Amino acid sequence: MTSTTPADVCIVGGRVFDGRIGTADTAVAIRGERILAIGSDAEIRALAGTDTRIVDAAGGGILPGFVDAHIHAAFAGVERLSCDLTGATTVDETLALIAQAAETTGTEWVTGGGWSHELFPHPTRQQLDAIVPDRPVALSDAGHHTLWVNSRALELAGVDRDTPTPLNGHIHRDDDGEPTGYLNESAAELVGRVVPPATDAEIAAGILNAQEFLWTLGITGWHEAILGEYNGKADCTGAYLATIADGTLRSRTSGALWVPRGTAIGDVPALIERFVALRAENAAAGFDTSTAKAMVDGVPHGETAALLEPYCSHAGSGELHIDAEALEALVVGLDAVGFAMHLHIMGDRGIRVALAAVEAARRTNGTGQRHHFAHLSMVHPDDARRFGPLGITANIQGLWASNDPAVVPMIGEARMRAGYPFRSIADSGAALAMGSDWPVSPADPWLAIHVAVNRTLPGQDGTPSEPLDATQRLTLTEALAAYTSGSAELVLGGGGVLRVGARADVVVSTVDPFAIPTDALIGVGNALTVVAGRIVHESA
């Protein structure tokens, strides 16, 4: 604890969670970019000099900075600077924001996104035509699996009644066979391919906008879940390299190279060769891209997740975006050259196929890389027990693990209530990481932690709904560890801990989360954020 070097910052009067467990320590000292000491208030105050900044945590938690293991920060930031619909709570408010964007945007296309399926179960081109009749409009939903477009956008893309439905996609049509302007999955790319892509400069501005916002939530590092062209969005790799090079991106980041939907087994050797070259090029510029991202299936809400049993509304059970044979070749081949797989999986059949692919990689290559499965909305109980033995990390989106009446018509009450089996997966011995999937859902870690621990979110009247299978709850310690050290170890190669000598990414919560009832976690906020020793956010 002794040191002759004064601290730059001393945070006192809190309770230290070190990234794995709660401790009896109450204070942390920082010098430069590193943690100088951890201990009692008296011990840490003794390290202060005349120029030391003393921060009173006022009884709050002192924690490692949160690390978001599955986020689309570049997409989110660009949307925040364009037509951002994520805050709209009514149909009229959404349409007003679109009209405002059309009035204030000088570009030909009106783009952005974040609209809600709860407000627009089936949006139409006519709704957009009434607001913007003479310019193309293309707006992603909050989940970024669907595109809502107007008639002008369909015309420019050449999408009409005779356009064939693409593989793994759906063009919604009216009773006359005309496209309604509602495009799912790969069908969104029919219009997305003609939307002028954002420039590297625009994406860089979006990344920095996102960084500032994430700091307010205590997020000091993240994993960009798609690097590559996706649904008409430009590859954001160049913008990351630029912001790393000029020092404006100060958060720790990594990214996953995008495996296109529909990749066939014959495409795998060339893809692996290209990914190896990209990884080396990006690493030389200080950007870790040693992960490959693939979507195994779609989403239950759009009836595109791959299920073991059919959907309730029809005989179909969804489709794999990459067939089982190609997925196994991808996982085995990329694992052999040092890539971790980051797999989007929502359906229980998708989980089973992906588990078989990882099992083949373990059999062929040995222990191998830390592959992670994200979302995990539907997992057969037998398959939940396989995560630990196969060394698969559960990259969970804790906020989603509550009752979702909107999906019941698609999969039924029983399958909805059996969703997100975090406890079963953790009990299998699997490591846990956590992310938000922002802008698909809010980025606030405390909201996700609240739901992971309580399995419910309060309704608009403040009354919590019935928990979603309360036996699948995580403990507060498990949830905090997943969002700090668990995510950092998975996607940043380590960190997410408060240790002497560690990089000083530190946050202070408004209250000590261990000193309140678990059903009050939703009220916890972020008071202070420190990135590499520098205070970057303080709440009023």
Topology:
Layout: E1 7-12, E2 15-16, E3 27-31, E4 34-39, H1 41-45, E5 48-56, E6 61-64, E7 66-71, H2 73-80, E8 83-84, H3 91-104, E9 110-115, H4 125-129, E10 137-141, E11 146-149, H5 151-157, E12 169-173, E13 179-185, H6 188-192, H7 200-216, E14 219-227, H8 237-245, E15 252-258, H9 268-284, E16 288-295, H10 324-336, E17 340-345, H11 348-365, E18 372-375, H12 381-384, E19 393-396, H13 408-417, H14 422-427, E20 432-434, H15 445-454, H16 476-491, E21 506-509, E22 526-531, E23 534-538
Helix pairs in contact: 2-7, 7-8, 10-11, 15-16
Describe the structure.
The protein is built from 16 helices and 23 strands. The protein is of the alpha/beta class. The protein has three domains: 96 residues, Urease, subunit C, domain 1 (Roll); 111 residues, Diaminopimelate Epimerase, Chain A, domain 1; 230 residues, Alpha-Beta Barrel (TIM Barrel), CATH 3.20.20.140. The strands form four sheets. It has an eight-stranded parallel beta sheet with strand order 7-14-15-16-17-18-19-20. Strands 8-9-10-11-13-12 form a six-stranded mixed beta sheet, sandwiched between helices. A five-stranded mixed beta sheet has the order 2-6-21-22-23, covered by helices on one side. Strand 15, helix 9 and strand 16 form a beta-alpha-beta unit. Helix 2 crosses helix 7, helix 7 packs across helix 8 and helix 15 packs across helix 16. It starts with 6 loop residues before the first strand and ends with a strand. The model has no long low-confidence stretch (mean pLDDT 94).
